[in-house]
Specification:
With about 70 residues, this protein is an alpha+beta fold. The protein has one helix at about 50-65; strands at about 15-20, 25-30, 35-40. The termini are far apart. The model has no long low-confidence stretch (mean pLDDT about 90).
Length: about 70
């Protein structure tokens, strides 16, 4: 499992990751301040499990690169 960094806006560890089974979107969102990022991962020839795994990896790579704002 990939580690999830705290929210770059408020420092909270209350991060929710959501994917949609029929859409290519995946969202990482801070439940405390609502800071979020949205990534689209095309389905291509993946099944739902493969798409969820790839989506989680991609959104967390982007989330974890966000720098904390002072």
């Amino acid at each position: 499992m990939i580690e999830v960094n705290p929210c770059p806006k408020c420092g909270s560890d209350n991060i929710q990751i959501s994917a949609f089974s029929i859409l290519p979107d995946v969202i990482a969102k801070c439940e405390d301040c609502e800071y979020n990022i949205d990534v689209q991962v095309p389905w291509e020839d993946m099944n739902e499990e493969e798409h969820d795994e790839k989506s989680l990896k991609e959104v967390l790579e982007i989330w974890n690169k966000q720098e904390e704002k002072s």
